[in-house]
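Lecture notes, part 5. Sequence design as translation. It can be helpful to think of inverse folding as translation between two languages: the language of shapes and the language of residues. The source text, in structure tokens, appears below.
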């Protein structure tokens, strides 16, 4: 099997810089001139040199910057488009709505941040708000429509999809148009969004008969030990309602514009913005297969650099939005952060929307303009399974050392020196500068490619099937042949290949290589990995895979370090777990996996969209780079005869079923392989079943019959947290009289518990600038990365059980941009308090003194 690739060429000065990651690209037509600030940003230099130097200290000189290489571009000489559907005209619309959930985490009865697992992360503020971004595309040639949603959350869940579809069906305007098969819900995979909306938990929810106090204690302990989130009704409602409203706005936008427009498809190469975190697994793949992916420096391309973008601009020049796909984990804020954040992808989305003047107003606002174009920028997720932004994660120190405790320290691997350790004053604020760096890299690439490329051409179509992934026998001869490699041991490839009961491996609890954890990866029940990497994963790469030798726990706001030797622990556990696994026939096909527990079980939604010559494959997994390459090839083989020349994977779509590795990567049982639940043949099963789906689309017949979905019941309402009576809105820490650009303004107010009013499409804090007329103009809200909102409330076991917020201090931190105009400023805080559960929230406002910024502003904010 060989993917069809071609080398990008310098067809124009703009495209050349897109291919080579240069900072001298010109701004595309339709973009404001200040987009040049993004293309000139010094953040784009991070990772482009062999040295990492921060504050005058060099930490490594062995970094290997990316070199240009081959990128998967549209296939040449595909078959003809369906008769009568050769047009490049589409109708389309976009919509955006806030999906930010409650602050406070488990101590207030809400879900902690999801995604990082350790340590528990009860969120105490907002770095950036979370949004659902929806796009609807219709083909005039067949009248079919598809809805694509990219939402700023850790993963999509079956529960959220079920509830969104219910609301669409109940809407008299939307119900007949948007159903399960033509609605695709994808998550960006930020690890800094609240959970409790159907995400996987280690322990089941407490029985309904358990009294509230018992349930509180049970959930509190579960959050403390496992960092999992029981059901959070408030967060679930924020997500479901926000997604539904974004779809309705996209529908109104489409209906208000009956004329067709063009959707431009552009493919570029984004360098020095992601890195593989599972090299010991990647090298297990076939040498012949790996040899197809080599860059100009002669190094392997072990993580996809392709940046695929759709630009939606009407024929009259009105920009509607962009959707792009680039594979990287949005984990830049760090596993120690306690801030709600859309992380790098959200930072890029907000940056593009800021350039284009996007309006963020609620539906009932006088400023709302139903149907009007309002630019929406979705930086969507694709096959990011092994891709992280920590560029310096595997670099040796300046003396060439890469053993445990050596190499580049954790806190510096994203190119910044922000507070990281629990003993640092501002550790809980995460790494906003790092988020900015890797958001800016994606934003710059989107700007370079905006409006570029060739127009999509052809029909709109869609298919959906639900598959029981625990019981798929691989019978497709082509898939079997393409999943067997002659240059690898035959023991990897038995004659009978099938998936089996879902299970999580012990390596799952190692976590990804981009955060400190205590576990140890690479322990297996069968030693079949083609390449021996034990020395690497035990003794090199700064000890990433043999753990930190500690468990970090958060108890009553204090962080404890408990010594645990991960390698010794896993050495003892592995033979016990392997013996247990062998005694359970449902795990027979888990092969090398050291099974920790049964996991999964819900049907897998496999969804396929076609927009002209582009196919979007929606999958509920985090797909690794090589697995993604194989899946796209399978789709091209099935769909290229009917005119599809490009395939993109939409990851974390419609549900969440963990990871997807190749059979060869699975053999190493790194984090990703241990998280591939249905065994070593899960990828081949997915290829086989998605091929069936694609063949029905190519043939114009209905999707295959799948399994039935069970109805998921919603959990109990979230508890109400009450406040102790106080002088709400009063100033605790006021602003100084004047500041310099680049300074931070930090002020605080006597506050109410913010979780009682989510302020969706609004804000808890505002920076206001006095106009020449003496009015106050809002220039920043808590959606903007430069303005943080922090709730400093006392939470402990007592406050949790009483559902009471004690001594709430609400803080605003404004990092003044270098281009802030001279003049008078103030910071306003809008909140609510609630003195009894039966009371409605009571609004209050606090305003700081006026402060000044003088002098001449810079041209750019950074």
């Amino acid at each position: 099997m060989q993917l069809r690739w071609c080398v990008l060429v310098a067809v124009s000065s703009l495209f050349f810089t897109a291919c080579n990651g240069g900072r001298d690209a010109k701004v595309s037509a339709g973009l404001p001139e200040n987009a040049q600030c993004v293309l000139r940003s010094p953040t784009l230099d991070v990772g482009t040199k062999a040295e990492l130097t921060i504050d005058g200290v060099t930490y490594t000189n062995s970094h290997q910057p990316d070199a240009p290489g081959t990128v998967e571009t549209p296939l040449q000489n595909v078959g003809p488009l369906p008769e009568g559907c050769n047009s490049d005209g589409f109708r389309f619309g976009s919509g955006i709505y806030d999906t930010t959930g409650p602050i406070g985490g488990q101590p207030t009865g809400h879900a902690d941040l999801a995604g990082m697992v350790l340590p528990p992360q009860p969120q105490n503020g907002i770095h950036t708000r979370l949004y659902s971004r929806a796009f609807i595309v219709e083909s005039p040639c067949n009248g079919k429509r598809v809805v694509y949603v990219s939402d700023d959350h850790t993963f999509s869940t079956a529960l959220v999809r079920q509830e969104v579809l219910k609301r669409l069906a109940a809407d008299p305007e939307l119900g007949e148009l948007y159903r399960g098969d033509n609605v695709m819900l994808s998550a960006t995979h930020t690890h800094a969004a609240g959970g409790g909306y159907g995400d996987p938990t280690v322990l089941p929810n407490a029985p309904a008969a358990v009294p509230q106090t018992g349930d509180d204690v049970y959930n509190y302990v579960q959050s403390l030990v496992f960092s999992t989130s029981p059901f959070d009704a408030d967060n679930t409602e924020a997500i479901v309602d926000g997604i539904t409203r974004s779809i309705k706005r996209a529908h109104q936008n489409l209906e208000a514009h009956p004329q067709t427009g063009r959707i431009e498809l552009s493919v570029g190469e984004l360098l020095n913005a992601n890195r593989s975190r599972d090299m010991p697994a990647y090298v297990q793949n076939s040498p012949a297969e790996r040899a197809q992916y080599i860059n100009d420096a002669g190094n392997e391309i072990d993580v996809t650099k392709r940046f695929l973008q759709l630009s939606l601009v009407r024929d009259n020049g009105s920009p509607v939005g962009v959707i792009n796909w680039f594979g990287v984990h949005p984990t830049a804020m760090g596993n120690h952060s306690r801030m709600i954040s859309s992380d790098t992808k959200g930072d890029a989305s907000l940056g593009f929307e800021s350039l284009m003047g996007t309006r963020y107003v609620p539906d009932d606002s006088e400023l709302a303009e139903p149907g009007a174009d309002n630019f929406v920028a979705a930086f969507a997720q694709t096959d990011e399974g092994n891709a992280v932004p920590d560029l310096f994660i595997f670099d040796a120190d300046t003396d060439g050392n890469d053993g445990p405790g050596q190499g580049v320290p954790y806190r510096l691997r994203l190119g910044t020196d922000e507070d990281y350790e629990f003993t640092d004053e501002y550790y809980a604020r995460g790494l906003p500068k790092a988020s900015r760096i890797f958001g800016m890299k994606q934003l710059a690439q989107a700007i370079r490619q905006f409006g570029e490329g060739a127009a999509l051409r052809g029909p709109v179509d869609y298919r959906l099937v639900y598959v029981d992934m625990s019981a798929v026998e691989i019978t497709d001869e082509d898939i079997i042949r393409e999943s067997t490699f002659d240059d690898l041991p035959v023991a990897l490839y038995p004659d009978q290949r099938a998936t089996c009961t879902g299970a999580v491996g012990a390596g799952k609890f190692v976590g990804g290589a981009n955060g400190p954890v205590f576990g140890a990866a690479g322990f297996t029940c069968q030693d079949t990995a083609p390449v021996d990497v034990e020395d690497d994963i035990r003794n090199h790469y700064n000890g990433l895979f043999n753990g930190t030798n500690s468990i970090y726990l958060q108890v009553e706001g204090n962080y404890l370090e408990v010594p645990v030797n991960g390698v010794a622990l896993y050495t003892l556990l592995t033979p016990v777990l392997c013996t247990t696994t062998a005694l359970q026939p449902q795990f027979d096909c888990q092969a090398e996996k050291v099974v920790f527990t049964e996991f999964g079980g819900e049907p897998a939604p496999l969804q396929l969209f076609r927009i002209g010559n582009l196919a979007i494959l929606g999958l509920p997994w985090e797909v690794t780079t090589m697995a993604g390459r194989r899946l796209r090839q399978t789709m091209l083989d099935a769909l290229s005869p009917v005119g599809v020349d490009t395939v993109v994977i939409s990851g974390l779509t419609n549900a969440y079923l963990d990871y997807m590795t190749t059979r060869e990567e699975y053999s190493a049982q790194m984090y990703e392989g241990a998280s591939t639940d249905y065994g070593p043949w899960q990828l081949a099963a997915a290829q086989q079943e998605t091929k069936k789906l694609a063949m029905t689309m190519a043939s114009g017949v209905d999707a295959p019959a799948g399994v039935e979905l069970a109805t998921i019941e919603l959990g109990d309402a979230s508890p109400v947290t009450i406040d102790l009576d106080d002088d709400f809105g009063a100033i605790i820490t006021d602003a100084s009289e004047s500041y310099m650009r680049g300074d931070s303004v930090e002020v605080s107010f006597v506050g109410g518990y913010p979780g009682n009013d989510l302020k969706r499409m609004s804000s808890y804090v505002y920076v206001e600038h006095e106009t020449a007329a003496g009015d106050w103009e809002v220039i920043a809200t808590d959606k903007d990365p430069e303005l943080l909102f922090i709730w400093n409330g006392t939470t402990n076991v007592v406050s949790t059980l009483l559902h009471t917020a004690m001594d709430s201090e609400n803080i605003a931190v404004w990092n003044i941009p270098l281009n802030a105009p001279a003049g008078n400023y103030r910071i306003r805080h809008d909140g609510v308090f609630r003195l009894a559960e039966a009371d409605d929230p009571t609004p209050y406002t606090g305003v700081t003194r006026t402060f000044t910024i003088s002098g001449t502003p810079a041209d750019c904010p950074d």
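The translated text above is only one of many valid answers, since several sequences can fold into similar shapes. The chain has 17 helices and 38 strands.
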